[in-house]
């Protein structure tokens, strides 16, 4: 009896692992990320030409899709905040993730939100005053943190491409 229960539990775990692996592989070839799984380059969406001076239309959204590394595109779903009409993407434990390092090497990014694609340039935030403001914005929007910058977190300002 115990053996059957154990066997059923192991089989269920195997099914879950195989399913997660399948989704992660499929996401690599998908039009953008699938939930927490990184995806490929954006295929669908209207490309918006010109700079955006008012990001208030994003107020109801919790996440956006960020495409990085144009020479070998990959995309992720991430949080964002808007401060002083500039779009920012934070990354906790940034050094342990792939996408922040790729963005630091090549700041050309594309953002997809509400079916529209914006071609932008990412600049890492190094100013401690802005870091504090961003931590406060993240706390207000997502209810996490204490409004103080986290040492291993990075943030990028997404500004118009030159």
Structure characterization notes:
The chain is of the alpha+beta class and 162 residues long. The chain has one domain: Electron Transport, Fmn-binding Protein, Chain A (Pnp Oxidase, Chain A, Roll), CATH 2.30.110.10. The chain is built from 3 helices and 8 strands; from the N terminus they run αβββββαββαβ. It has helices at 2-27, 98-105, 128-142, and strands at 46-48, 63-68, 74-79, 81-83, 86-91, 108-113, 116-124, 154-160. Strands 1, 2, 3, 4, 5, 6, 7 and 8 form an 8-stranded mixed beta sheet that branches. The model has no long low-confidence stretch (mean pLDDT 88).
Secondary structure elements and pairings:
Layout: H1 2-27, E1 46-48, E2 63-68, E3 74-79, E4 81-83, E5 86-91, H2 98-105, E6 108-113, E7 116-124, H3 128-142, E8 154-160
Parallel strand pairs: 1-7
Antiparallel strand pairs: 2-3, 2-6, 4-5, 5-8, 6-7, 7-8
